[in-house]
Design brief:
Layout lengths: L2 H13 L22 H5 L3 E2 L2 E2 L2 H13 L3 H13 L6 H13 L3 H14 L6 H13 L3 H12 L10 H13 L3 H10 L9 H13 L3 H13 L6 H14 L2 H13 L6 H13 L3 H13 L6 H13 L3 H13 L6 H13 L3 H13 L6 H13 L3 H13 L6 H13 L3 H10 L9 H13 L3 H13 L6 H13 L3 H12 L9 H13 L3 H13 L6 H13 L8 H13 L3 H13 L6 H11 L2 H16 L1
Antiparallel strand pairs: 1-2
Protein name: Pentatricopeptide repeat-containing protein
Pfam families: PPR, PPR_1, PPR_2
Keywords: Repeat
Length: 635
């Protein structure tokens, strides 16, 4: 029998072994083929240091690992073990990677520990790194560090960590937020004869940036070049991303210039990061200008580039400009995805361009772009804003028929639409029907329902919904609390409203009162001539670091003019409020009240005005203004 015939027979025989899934099944299945003959495997002649057939086993291991057929893979390993075949580490590396793709870190760990005893194959640092990588990719960072310590510090170990090992170790530490420990390990690497490479620096820079330690991350850029390790575009992108998230676009722009000097051309990620940073800062015109620069540099924009600009323009209320960007995108051969359509449709509805939004929906359908939950929700919200909740409800039914599951935004938009149209019963019925579509009532739905019921004066039913929410273990958010407080105040139950307010003070951050909550109580107390209680509440508001807004000022100005005898214009009251905020170093809040005073022709005292100007013109403020000018020049 030739070698080819032996190999073919082995392949067919092993592949025909019954899998674990088929064992023990009914007699309707065909009987399994007979087991492979030991004589077949033992009859091959010797060939060098390997017996004929070992390479076939290795090929089978590669095949079954690639196809994730772990049952057949185990059968091959068992057969090799019975035949006293030679196990080489290369095959185990293939298996470890397969376990990683299949998200089976436990099996990778088990096989690693079995290698020396069950298969007489001593693992090297290659196997160790492969398993360590599998564990880290699954997010088991603590287990990865424990695995490292147990293996590397074990007695009689032949595994000495290399650069890849340290890179994986740094990644796990940074993911856990242990950046200081990562820096210590990084400094020890040269002592272990493992000088850091580009990936090492990138990993540590990324960890430092995520801990808002940007300056330390940037300093590593100079250090790595001094050590003869030249940065890659990825290195710069990590730092640029960190600076953009911090809002320091000026330094990010200088890094781009540095890239060119080092012979690193900005890539898609670089430009997308900068464009995203500009959009967050509201510099949409500069973002569009950077897009043109990107194209002129022969760097092709992608969906993320265009999507970022479209979203930024829509958030600024410039949906029509966003449509122009979309058209430019299509002219350059890019297909518009459903997320861009959803942003545009939502933006056009919010901007009062309902006809354009509907045309865009039709265009999307004609181009074969199937709408998802986000797009359907944008259309439903837009129709409700137009005062057409019934039409929006038809879209909801169409959405469900198409297999798209409505989300919290979908239902809450429709409920708001019915409340706005005065159809309170329909909104409540919709809330009840949601359970039929396996939609769990969460805090968003409860907040919308409570707000709508309180707004139409149906306090008793709102209180029933409130009780139901608490019974279900759903914690109210600030919107739900504020709505109930508003409902109680409208019903004249100010003491009950204050009781709920004090309960609110004991809740978590997302349920803490905001300026809207305080304004509801200020308005009610002042209308009831409880001005001293309103002032006490204002003092409490300031102590809790919540700044007054224009509505707060207007409530107290109206009260001082209408409720006091003799009437006051409120100038001294607002002037004192400005001083109290300045004493607490809340310059932004103080400046907002000064703006109100100027608009009401109630200029601050000269001393107060002097303090405001002094605070706004401190060296740091001046430097911030200069930096702002530079940023405008950089782009």
């Amino acid at each position: 029998m030739t070698k080819l015939t032996v190999s073919y027979t082995i392949r067919r025989g092993l592949s025909s072994l019954p899998s674990k899934a088929s064992r023990g099944q009914g007699t309707s299945q065909p009987p399994p083929p007979p087991p492979l003959s030991d004589q077949l495997f033992n009859s091959a002649p010797q060939s060098g240091s390997f017996r004929l057939g070992d390479s076939t086993f290795y090929s089978l291991i590669h095949h079954y690992a690639h196809t994730a057929d772990f049952t057949s893979l185990d059968d091959v390993l068992c057969r090799m073990k019975l035949q006293n075949r030679v196990f080489i580490e290369k095959c185990f590396l293939v298996i470890f990677k397969a376990y990683g793709r299949a998200h089976l870190p436990d099996k990778a760990l088990d096989l690693f520990h079995r290698m020396p005893h069950d298969f007489r194959c001593i693992p090297t640092v290659k196997s160790f790194n492969s398993v360590l990588n599998v564990i880290i990719k699954e997010g088991f960072y603590h287990r990865a560090l424990d695995f490292y310590n147990r293996v590397v510090n074990a007695k009689n170990t032949n595994i000495s960590p290399n650069v890849l090992t340290f890179n994986l170790l740094l990644k796990a530490m940074c993911k856990l937020g242990w950046v200081d420990r990562a820096v210590e390990v990084f400094r020890e690497m040269p002592l272990r004869k493992c000088p850091p490479d580009v990936y090492t620096y990138c990993t540590l820079m990324d960890g430092l940036c995520k801990e808002d330690r940007i300056d330390e991350a940037v300093s590593l850029l100079d250090e790595m070049q001094t050590e003869g390790c030249f940065p890659s575009p990825v290195t710069f992108n990590v730092l640029i991303n960190g600076l953009c998230k911090k809002g320091d676009l000026a330094r990010a722009a200088k890094l781009v210039d540095n890239m060119f000097l080092k012979g690193c051309c900005p890539n898609q990620v670089t430009y997308n990061t900068l464009i995203h940073g500009l959009c967050i800062k509201g510099k949409l015109d500069k973002a569009v200008s950077l897009l043109d620069r990107m194209v002129s540099s022969n760097c092709i924009p992608n969906d993320i580039t265009y999507g970022t600009i479209v979203n930024g323009l829509v958030k600024q209320g410039r949906a029509e400009d966003a449509v122009k960007v979309m058209i430019s995108m299509q002219e350059r051969g890019y297909g518009v995805n459903e997320y861009i359509y959803s942003a545009l449709i939502s933006g056009l509805f919010k901007g009062g361009k309902s006809e354009d939004a509907r045309k865009l929906w039709t265009q999307m359908m004609e181009k074969g772009c199937k709408p998802n939950t986000v797009v359907y929700s944008a259309l439903i919200d837009g129709l409700c804003r137009e005062g057409k909740p019934n039409e929006a409800e038809e879209v909801l039914y169409e959405m469900i028929d198409e297999g798209c599951t409505p989300n919290a935004y979908t239902y809450s938009s429709l409920m708001k639409g019915f409340f706005k149209a005065g159809n309170c019963n329909k909104a409540v019925q919709l809330w009840k029907d949601m359970a039929e579509h396996e939609c769990i009532h969460n805090k968003v739905y409860y907040s919308v329902l409570i707000h709508g019921l309180c707004e139409v004066g149906n306090l008793s039913e709102a209180m029933m919904v409130w009780a139901d929410m608490l019974d279900k273990g759903c914690k109210p958010d600030a919107v739900a609390y504020s709505s109930m407080i508003q409902g109680l105040c409208n019903a004249g139950s100010i003491e009950e409203a204050l009781k709920l307010f004090h309960e609110m003070l004991c809740q978590e951050t997302e349920s803490q009162p905001d300026v809207i909550t305080y304004n509801i109580l200020f308005n009610t107390l002042c209308n009831q001539n409880s001005i001293s209680r309103a002032i006490d509440l204002l003092n409490s508001m300031l102590d809790r670091a919540c700044d007054p807004d224009i509505a707060t000022c207007n409530i107290f100005l109206r009260t001082l003019r209408e409720k006091l005898d003799p009437a006051q214009d409120g100038r001294e009251f607002l002037d004192e409020l400005v001083i109290r905020l300045l004493n607490r170093q809340r310059v932004f809040g103080a400046s907002k009240i000064v703006q109100v005073m100027l608009q009401k022709f109630l200029p601050p005292k000269a001393s107060t005005w002097g303090r405001v100007v002094q605070e706004l013109c401190k060296p740091k403020k001046v430097q911030a203004a200069i930096d702002k000018c530079w940023r405008n020049l950089d782009f």
